[in-house]
Amino acid sequence: MNIEFINEVRALMKRDRQSAIRFRHDSFLRKHCVQAALNKRRSIRELMAIYGC
Prior knowledge:
This protein is mainly α and 53 residues long. 85% of the residues lie in helices and 0% in strands. The chain has helices spanning 3-22, 27-51.
């Protein structure tokens, strides 16, 4: 597991968070973007715990 992959996932998470802000008036899309960002954050934490990055 390399740090470039984790940074790439972090960038995707940031885009999901920005999309949630952009879709603030559409509850379905906002909820979807927030859930995607939370799932990515959880994955990053798990990967860092497993690989000790």
